[in-house]
Write a structure and sequence with these properties.
117 residues; 18% helix; 6 strands; Nuclear Transport Factor 2, Chain: A; 3 helices
Amino acid sequence: MVRAIYEAWEQRASTDHLVSPDLEYVNPPYAVEGGTVRDRKALGGVLDVYPDFHIDDKRFIDAGDDVVVIGVARGTGASGVSIELRQGYVWTIEGGRAIRFQWFNHPDEALKAAGLG
C-alpha cells in the first residue's frame, strides 16, 4: 500500500483513497515547522516549496504495522536552489489506509523510530 502512495505521487495522482483524512503528520524536532499536524493535505506542503519534489532510489522495509521508506529526496525551489537529501520515512497503516507519517533527515532515525535500529 505504501508503494501505491509513492506510485500515485509519481503520476501526480490523488492518494485520498490510501491516506486517512486525519493523517497524523509528524515533523522531527529539528524541522522548520516542528510538531504534529492532523491533515493529509500536509503531505503536499513540500510541493509548495519544491514543485518538482520526488523521491528516488526508494527502499521499502516492513516493520510490522509500520513501513519504513529510505530514499533520496530531490527537488528545485522557486529560488533555483536544488536539494538532494537521503531521508527516511515511517508510515503507519491501519484499516487499509495510512494513518501516520513521520519524516527524518537521516534514514537511521526512521529505522530507530520503527524499532529497527
